[in-house]
Structures are given as C-alpha cells and as structure tokens.
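Pipeline run #58 for the internal structure catalog. This entry was flagged by the ingest filter as a single-chain record with no existing model, so it goes straight to prediction. Upstream metadata was stripped on purpose; only the residue string is passed forward. Reviewer on rotation: M.T. Logging verbosity set to normal.
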Amino acid sequence: MIKAVFFDLDGVIADTLHFHYLAWEKMFQELGGSVSEHSVLLHEGRASREILPTFLAEAGVTLPVEEHEAFIDRKREYYRSIVEVTYYPHVFEVIAELRRRGFLTALVTASSKKNMETALSGDHRTLFDFLITGDEVRRAKPSPDPYLAPMHHMNLSPTECLVVENAPLGIESAKNAGMTCVAVETTLGRDYLGLADYVIHEIRGLLELPFLQSAG
C-alpha cells in the first residue's frame, strides 16, 4: 500500500529546464563550445559536478578540475538571474489533493538549495512533509540515496513509496531504491521513460491511479 508520494522538482513541478539549458549553454559558449538541450534533459537529476565532464566532452572544450566548482557556481547564479519560473498546470492542486487523501509528500531534487528556493515559495514548500536538495546527498541520481532519504525520515519501506519523475536518471534512482515510479511526459517522450512502472501524459493522471485513491 502506498503511503507517500515523492516528487522531483524541475520537469515535474516547475517548468524550468529550458533555463538550466540556457545557463549551461552560456557558460560553454564562453569557453568556445556548445551543449545540446537534449543532453541537458537526458542528464537531468545527475549532480552538476558529475555532469560537467560529460558536457565538457560534448562541447569539445577543456576546463581545469580545480575550476569546476567555480564554473558550476557561476552557472547557477546565471540560471537564477534569468529563470522565469512557471509551473505545470494543476500540479499544486494534485499535490494538495493527494495530501487530502492521506498521503505524505516529499520534494526530492538534484537542484541546489538556492535554486529550489528560487523555484518554490515558502507556501509551496509547505505542501511537502520533507524536502531534500542536491546539496544534501552524497550520491546523486541515479543512486537510490535521494529517494531513500525521505523514506527513512518517514519510517517507511520502499513498497510504501511512490516516485513521480520525468527523466531517465530519476526513474533509475527510484527503481534502485525499490520504489514504484510514475513518469510524466513533460520533457521527454515515453521512449525515454521505459524503466518507469507507469507513464502518464500530465500530472492529473496521478489522481486516476487506483493505488492513489487513499493512503494505505
């Protein structure tokens, strides 16, 4: 019986990934290279420090390892300066309805705490019983660690937790944690979401799933 629903942020709640791409692209253009938006979408959920070498190779540029952290910090600052935060339709109503049905909720994001706070107001954050950002986990997605954190905090088992994701690495993280995963076709088509247990076109589809009618 499902007792808790864990949500990714970028691509599930907040429609912000295009701005993450624009920030990465600006940084790589300064080095004389370029990265594709498709690559940014495919690697969503991985820690920036882990993504950076892959993007450097794709862009065909080099950056000394000792400069990686400063490069990432500048990318994040630029992202926050340009992002126009919008939300997928009905997402907060769906989360509120799941809470009304008795489910615990958590926000599990690879974004930094500052980026998360840029995307979600204090009122929005109150919709979650637990929040964890990329700053707070030792191993990022596709490791199970991000999704195991709220599970342990809530004293639940993997089979009592449901994950809502939009990207392959996040789905892999959920499955590595032993949890059921529902993928939403917000940023990638279902051809990229094959590891998920269920694929829905938009977030309101959660409310139709038979095991989310009331908390176990």
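catalog note: Residues 68-82 form the longest helix (15 residues).
catalog note: DSSP finds nine helices and six strands in the chain.
status: ready for reviewer M.T.
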